[in-house]
Rod shape-determining protein MreC beta-barrel core domain-containing protein
Amino acid sequence: MLVALVFFNKSHALIQNIIVKTSMFLVPERLAQKDSANIALFLEQIRALKFENNKLKTALEIQNHYRVIPAKIKFGGGYLFIDYVFADEGAKSGIKENNIVVTENNVLVGQVEAVGANWSKIKKTGSLGQKLTLIGEDPNLSFDAVGLGGGELAAELPARLSAVFKPGDTLRWAENPNYTVGLIDKIDFKEGNPFGKILIVSPISPSAVIWVNILPNND
């Protein structure tokens, strides 16, 4: 009985020793796996930071190359200001007369006509009597349009061009084709008449324009 007990105790001690040694072997392995997972996560975070940094760097380079001054439109004055709007940025921000004003989607809002310290008066595209040279899909085919007021323009074109344009076509500013001026609303070409008329409307509602970008260098 004593021999069996001694044997049992020795066997128990041996098993405990094996368990302890096995645990000592497995714990570093688990720690190594955990460290490996942490390192992988850390490297992934570094890659994500590098990606965001490159995006920010690119954005800053673009912003420096194409500098814009964001401004908020101030409404007021009612119908009297149908061809004008005011922005809350002015000379202190570097804005000058004749600076181009566009929306975030590059729709031509107009040009700065007058500037104060903290405000700008913007003459809207399509204001009464304004003349703009426009182009459609073909950049080599341009024509002049005259503002009717309230963002609308009209143009007369030779009847032979009646098949070139259609309602809904986008028209851009020939001086800078990056900017959209309006959409063709109506076309009136009458048989026997050498000229036809095109009515152009703004693609945006004046009341929907709250924020604009003012281009201080007319870029």
User: Anything to note?
Assistant: The CA atoms of residues 100 and 111 lie 5 Å apart. Residues 1-65 form one domain. DSSP finds one helix and twelve strands in the chain. The first helix runs from residue 2 to 65.
